[in-house]
Amino acid sequence: MSDPQNDTNLATSANPADERRAQLAALIPDAFTEGKLDVAALKRALGEAAVIESGERYALTWAGKANAYKVLQTPSTATLRPERDKSVNFDDAQHVFIEGENLEVLKVLQKAYFGKVKLIYIDPPYNTGSDSFIYPDRFQESKEDYLRRLNELDDDGTLMREGFFRKNSKENGHYHSNWLSMMLPRLYIARNLLREDGVIFVSCDDNEVHNLRGVMNEVFGEENFIAQMVWEGASKNTADQIGVNHEYVLVFARFRSSVPKVWALAKDGVAPILREVERLKLQHGDDFDAASNDLAAWYRANKATPSFANRRFRYIDKNGVYKEDDPTAPGGRKFKLINPKTGAEIPLRANRGWAFDQVEFSKLVEQQRISFISSISIMVRRYLHETDTLTPQSVFYQPARSASERLEKFLGGSFFDYPKDDEVIRQFVEMATDSNDESCIAMDFFAGSATTSHAVLEQNSRDGGQRRFVAIQLPEPVEDETIQKAGFSTIADIARARISKAIQHIASKADLATPPQLGLGFKSFRLTPSNFKQWRGDFIDTPEQLAEQIQLFAKGEKEDAQVEDMFYELLLKFGQELTTPVETLEVEDGKVFAIHERKMLFVLESFAEAMIDPLVAMKPREIIVIDGVFQDSDMLKSNLDLQCRDAGIRFTCI
Ligand SMILES: C[S@@+](CC[C@H](N)C(=O)[O-])C[C@H]1O[C@@H](n2cnc3c(N)ncnc32)[C@H](O)[C@@H]1O
To answer: Ligand 1 atom closest to Cα of 403?
Structure first.
């Protein structure tokens, strides 16, 4: 978690350009003078040979690219409002669902989630010619007007009324440009959110794969490219020339050198066997014959599962579960193999050779990895846990139909067209994250029916991981009447319903082998205008500037601002994650929100003189109070300020 004490940039949705400038200044301080970039000094620092002066160059460019960068750099004045009634287990939940336009949401999240996300999977509109998405294509419109429209959210945070969410048809003169202008700022912030060892997977097809690769090279750097995966689907016999039955997933790292060298996928059906073996070892102790017999019975009871294909692994010893393998092969080594225990030679069958040399063999005997069937016949023990993974491959097959059918069955109706296959996304989660990584966050900001959230929950339930998801989805209206009748007005409603069901399902399957997941539930938020009267975040860098800005308004919060809404807005502005554990304290009849073991206190509802001593006695590092609670009593405010100064507590009045 970021340290609020060292966090000086308080009230903004962080500006990506500022972050990069700071990084460059840290790397090449001599290229900056009085906080500004000195291009000549930068050239000197890099060496003239590394600089392109003018003329032809390799570049990806499109109509509106400069505008897309400007859009990216404008801070958001929106916030996220908690919606308890749309959440599951709100107070303890470790997962987050956000209803809103993703670029605005990403900007709002940027400060609190900067460098914290381990994996991002997105499945953006492919730009097929009939896709709708949000793009700035009114080139005659000034940047200011565009941004004003973008920031003036409807009350429900949708932006729909302004006509931003539109079909981008192939006839549109800026067909590719619009798509690239939509993708660039979102990818840029996505990169900022990724941890050093973070990775991003982006689905697309032939419509834009060439442009996507170009823009990702620009944003992430070509050196961070990991793979262009080919996802093969069902064959198509209806095409004119060639049936295109595949799409792509581009995989990039934030820093490729920080990503683990080896990624692996568990072989299907192996995890339940390993869990059962652990259970049998606990039950039977050293009686490995009894454990092996019970394991054989377990395989018979699980004939219909993928585990059954591994039934040759049916013997248990102290090292694990193994199968007996022939230690010879046609091309193996031919020599006189000696049993190190008896000194006798072990005969070799005709036309075969040994799979090891004498030294390796003696070591295997010592490790009890050789079974002596008789004094002259041996088998080698191959353990399941040593052969239980596969290296993910860049080409894989998974037809779309099965995912649609599974989702329809799961939700009890056909509510969402073309969901991605949750099993494939689960494998992305499995290969690129670690079950022991307690701070793993997986994000999807084109969530659709929430396949990624489902996949994260499923992977956690398989390997006991505590990965958390953040899903973002536009409240795109549902047109189909049958779907509306089923109670869904928007795709966000469908996504929430799926996550709730997945949570119920996983909670109901928890048993000894798969213990309950911590924080199983999700906090639902909605993008809304700020609770405060216009944050001018663009020039606020210090608490003093923040306070000064707030002074411009007699009362910073809006008349109808709800206390919990303001609290979550401030959490984000102070760089704290939405799932930060919160304590609600009663202090002398006043309500106080406390986080980080009471090191940070928020007073947002009411304040009285009697609260000062108990608050100071808690020895927080920081107390944040909204001005309205002092009810125009400067005396009360200065008393609190003075006592905080005396106790070395940072006091911020908002
Ligand atoms: C192709 S679908 C994703 C499907 C998803 N992978 C699944 O398996 O269900 C893309 C989704 O992104 C949403 N979307 C498009 N533009 C968006 C935006 N600017 N902000 C948030 N969501 C957006 C659309 O509403 C749509 O549901």
So the answer is: 8
617 lies in a domain? yes
Q: Are strands 320-325 and 315-317 parallel, antiparallel or unpaired?
A: antiparallel
Q: Taking residues 252-272, what's their average pLDDT?
A: 93
Instruction: Tell me, yes or no, whether 2 lies in a domain.
Output: no
Do residue 243 and residue 108 come from a single domain? Answer: yes
Same domain, 352 and 468: no
Does 235 lie in the same domain as 154? yes
- Return the residue whose CA atom lies nearest to atom 7 of ligand 1: 419
Q: Whose CA is nearest to atom 15 of ligand 1?
A: 133
Tell me the CA–centroid distance for residue 141 and ligand 1, in Å: 26
Say what the pLDDT of residue 140 is: 54
Residues 251, 308, single domain; the answer is no
**Terminal alpha carbon distance of the chain:** 23
The CB of 473 under 6 Å from ligand 1? The reply is yes
Mean pLDDT for the chain overall: 88
**Same domain for 255 and 322?**
no
The enclosing domain of 213 has a CATH number of 3.40.50.150
Q: In the prediction, which pLDDT does 577 show? A: 97
Going by C-alpha positions, the residue among 126, 123, 104 that lies closest to residue 200 is 123
Statement to judge: residues 316 and 459 lie in one domain: no
CA of 323 to the centre of ligand 1 (A): 47
pLDDT digits (tens, 9 = 90+) for 275-321: 899 999 999 999 999 999 999 999 999 999 999 999 999 999 999 99
Where is 452: in which H helix or E strand? Answer: helix 451-463
Cβ-in-10-Å burial (0-12, 13-18, 19+) of 559 comes to exposed
**What spacing in Å lies between the alpha carbon of 442 and ligand 1's midpoint?**
16
- What's the pLDDT band for 7 if we cut at 50, 70, 90? very low
**Which strands, in side-by-side order, build the sheet including 95-99?**
78-82, 522-529, 95-99, 468-473, 441-444, 117-122, 194-204, 246-253, 225-232, 395-397
Q: Is the distance from the beta carbon of residue 123 to the nearest atom of ligand 1 less than 6 Å?
A: yes
- What tens digit of pLDDT does each residue of 202-237 get? 999 999 999 999 999 999 999 999 999 999 999 887
Asked if 247 and 204 count as a contact pair (C-beta separation under 8 A), the reply is: yes
pLDDT of residue 5: 37
Ligand 1 pocket member 474 (CB < 6 A):
yes
Q: Whose CA is nearest to atom 4 of ligand 1?
A: 448
Q: Give how far Cα 139 sits from Cα of 63, 76, 132, 187, 504, Å.
A: 9, 21, 18, 22, 48
**Domain identity same for 250 and 291:** no
Distance 293 CA to ligand 1 centre (A): 51
Residue 62 lies in a domain: no
Based on the structure, what is the number of domains in the chain? 4
Domain boundary among 480, 496, 528: 528
Regarding the beta carbon of 102 and ligand 1, being less than 6 Å apart is answered yes
User: Do 226 and 259 contact (CB within 8 A), yes or no?
Assistant: yes
Mutate to test the pocket of ligand 1, among 204, 443, 444, 474 (most ligand atoms within 8 A of CB): 474
523: confidence class by pLDDT, cuts 50, 70, 90:
very high
Place 541 in a pLDDT band, splitting at 50, 70 and 90: low
**Residue 448 in contact with ligand 1 by CB distance below 6 A:** yes
Q: Is the pLDDT of residue 456 over 50?
A: yes
Instruction: Check whether 549 has a pLDDT greater than 70.
Output: no
Residue nearest to atom 27 of ligand 1 (CA): 448
Domain boundary among 389, 422, 456: 389
Compute the distance from residue 123 Cα to the ligand 1 centre, in Å.
7
Residues 307 and 426 in one domain: no
H or E stretch covering 614: helix 612-617
Mutate to test the pocket of ligand 1, among 105, 446, 488 (most ligand atoms within 8 A of CB): 446
Q: Give the residue numbers spanning the domain of 50.
A: 14-57
Percent of the chain with pLDDT over 70: 89
Kindly indicate the confidence band of residue 465, based on its pLDDT and cuts at 50, 70 and 90: very high
Residue 558 lies in a domain: yes
